[in-house]
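Re: [ENG-882] Designed sequences occasionally contain unexpected residues at chain ends

Forwarding the minimal case from QA. Structure tokens:
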């Protein structure tokens, strides 16, 4: 199974340049073309939040139209820039988001890997949270299929990423989630967004990752007092490869002129 994860799209349907510099619609178009051309084709795409910059209905409509150009299903979860009600309405016909209830979380059982999407949004706040209600929901889902390898995807990382200005404020419920995940060994990967940079670590006894943004990255600032800053490093897609219980293997695929037509080969080595 091959999963393409895209994150932090920050789409602006009105054409405004993000930060006065970044064309989010062009970035989305490039990302869609990148995934559509990828061989082999990913089985699914996971879009891990900050789907839009302002959470407006027209942003979700434009996003939905772009996703419809892909042949594989795209599954979305909210980030701190999203609006739950508008997101739910915009993707209602996908059939996987809960029609009612406070949170946009769900489990997908149709694939070799079980996929569980979590909703870590705190409305009008930057940081993320899993409250007791959401943790209980996750515990119930994990109890259902203890034998099936499972990937959890969510917007906010519950673990430290080393980018101090993104590790604040602390994820609320991180300790409770860590204790929960440690009880369920079928969780093979927790993959997130929010930090706009490819990061992997170990957490709660499993592999934990952050996908880069498909639009812009956060500055690689490892000191505690580094100020928040954006940087135009290449946008990228995270690929998660799973082969007969080998994996997940995570590969970062930058979006740009890096396709087959741009490859070249070294000269044959001189015989010795
Ligand atoms: Fe973001």
């Amino acid at each position: 199974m091959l999963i393409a994860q895209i994150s932090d799209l920050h789409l602006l349907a009105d054409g405004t340049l993000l930060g006065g510099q970044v064309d989010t619609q062009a970035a989305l178009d490039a990302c869609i073309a990148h995934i559509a051309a990828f061989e082999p084709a990913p089985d699914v795409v996971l879009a891990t939040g900050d789907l839009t910059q302002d959470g407006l209905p027209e942003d979700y409509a434009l996003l939905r139209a772009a996703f419809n150009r892909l042949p594989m299903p795209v599954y979305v979860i909210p980030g701190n820039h999203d609006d739950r009600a508008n997101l739910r309405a915009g993707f209602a016909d996908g059939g996987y988001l809960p029609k009612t209830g406070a949170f946009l979380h769900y489990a997908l059982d149709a694939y070799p890997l079980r996929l569980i999407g979590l909703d870590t949004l705190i409305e009008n706040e930057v940081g993320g949270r899993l409250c007791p209600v959401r943790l209980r929901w996750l515990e119930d889902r994990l109890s259902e299929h203890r034998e099936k390898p499972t990937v959890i995807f969510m917007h906010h990382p519950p673990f430290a990423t080393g980018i101090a200005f993104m590790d604040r404020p602390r994820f609320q419920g991180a300790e409770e989630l860590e204790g929960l995940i440690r009880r369920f060994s079928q969780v093979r990967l927790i993959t997130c967004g929010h930090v706009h940079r490819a990061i992997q670590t170990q957490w709660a006894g499993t592999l934990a990752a952050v996908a880069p943004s498909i639009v812009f990255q956060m500055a690689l600032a490892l000191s505690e007092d580094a100020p928040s800053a954006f940087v135009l490093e290449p946008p990228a897609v995270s690929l998660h490869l799973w082969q007969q219980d080998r994996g997940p293997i995570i590969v970062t695929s930058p979006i740009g002129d890096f396709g087959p037509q741009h490859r070249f080969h070294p000269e044959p080595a001189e015989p010795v």
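QA comment: On inspection the terminal residues look reasonable. The CA atoms of residues 152 and 190 lie 5 Å apart. Proposing we downgrade this to a documentation issue.
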